[in-house]
Description:
Layout (H helix, E strand, L loop, with lengths): L1 H17 L5 H15 L5 H39 L1
Helix pairs in contact: 1-2
Amino acid sequence: MKITIAFHGAVSGICQLFGLRDRTWVAVPLAVIVAGLALSNENVVENIEWDRRYLFEYELLYGLIFPLILLAITWIRKRTHRG
C-alpha cells in the first residue's frame, strides 16, 4: 500500500511540475524504473550491503542537499521579485 501511495504521489508531482495532463507518459516509464530497481538485488543480503555502503549518501542527497537547493532558489526568487 505504501509503495502505491508513493508511486501515485511521484506521478502526480511530476505531472504537476511539468504541466502534463496525461499521466500515462509519466507512469509507464516510472513503473519500468521502479521494477528495474526492485529486481536489481539478487537477495536480502545484497540489499543490506547496499544500504550499509550507500544509504547515508543517498539520504544526505535527498534529505539535506536538495532541500537546501530548493530553499536557495526560493530565496533568490523572492529577492528578485521584490525588486
